[in-house]
Design a protein that fits this description.
The protein is 37% helix and 17% strand. The chain has a 9-stranded mixed sheet with strand order 4-3-5-2-1-6-10-11-9, sandwiched between helices. The chain is globular, with a radius of gyration of 17 Å. The termini are far apart. The chain contains 9 helices and 11 strands. Helix 2 crosses helix 4 and helix 6 packs parallel to helix 8. The protein has a single domain, classed as 3-Layer(aba) Sandwich (Carbamate kinase), CATH 3.40.1160. By secondary structure, the protein is α/β, with parallel strands linked by helices.
Length: 254
């Protein structure tokens, strides 16, 4: 029998916002949403793709917001790192209930609940078909989980970084207020950096640029989108290459 189409990528890092786990609640963890995401990840893992996941903590705590309210910034950021671990454990539970072997690795040691992040061990897990969820950010304050995702993507030599959001991708205007806003299929890293776009923070974009890791931004809520992205279908916005700067773009930060 002829083989079907093969995935475009061998190893990926999927960046999920913490808000994605909250669903319509807007806060906390919605088990139905966790099950939906787990099912989407299970599908691509079943294709033989090695999957690393980095999840944010905006559904529970944002360090930057705590700092704005007068809290010590480092303390607020460490609280955010702990919150990402709560989300990682929830996603691990959802995946393992579906029969997907999963490991959580944390940048801050908490051995009773997860492994410490060790690059070689993470790669070995991936090679054995286990989904690896990277928690606790980079382990350092002042860095976002977007930067943590870019760092882990570089460390494990991922072929691509997926930024799953609640928008279709990057637009040339705010689609919430401008009905004529156009989805932009392609951008360069320098477009994002020069225009100060809110796709992800500049440190994350620079890391991906320096390590030639493409970024694909797409809507997580559409069933099958992770699989479409893995198969190389043209969805959302693809960011790669140096190119020349262009007009200002817009995307909703998640």
């Amino acid at each position: 029998m002829p083989e079907g189409p093969r995935p475009a990528y061998r190893r990926i890092v999927l960046k999920l916002s913490g808000e994605a786990l909250a669903g319509e609640r807007g806060y906390g963890i919605d088990p139905a949403v966790v099950d939906f995401i787990a099912g989407e990840v299970r599908e691509v893992a079943g294709l033989g793709v090695q999957v690393g996941v980095v999840v944010g903590a905006g559904n529970i705590w944002r360090g930057a917001s705590g700092a704005q309210e007068g809290m010590d910034r480092a303390t607020a950021d460490y609280m955010g790192m702990l919150a990402t671990t709560i989300n990682a454990l929830a996603l691990q539970d959802g995946l393992e209930k579906m029969g997907v072997a999963t490991r959580v690795q944390t940048a801050i040691e908490m051995r009773q609940i997860a492994e410490p992040f060790i690059r070689r061990r993470a790669v070995r897990h991936l090679e054995k078909g286990r989904v690896v969820i990277f928690a606790a950010g980079t382990g350092n304050p002042y860095f976002t989980t977007d930067t943590a995702a870019a760092l882990r993507a570089a460390e494990i030599e991922a072929d691509v970084m997926f930024k799953a959001t609640n928008e279709e991708g990057v637009y040339d205007a705010d689609p919430r207020t401008d009905g004529a806003a156009r989805l932009l299929a392609r951008l360069t890293y320098l477009d994002v950096l020069r225009m100060g776009l809110r796709v992800m923070d500049s440190t994350a974009v620079s890391l991906c640029m320096e390590n030639r890791i493409p970024i694909v931004v797409f809507n997580l809520a559409r069933r099958g989108n992770i699989r479409r992205a893995v198969m190389g279908e043209p969805i959302g916005t693809r960011i790669e290459g140096q190119g020349e700067g262009g007009e200002e773009r817009w995307t909703k930060e998640t």
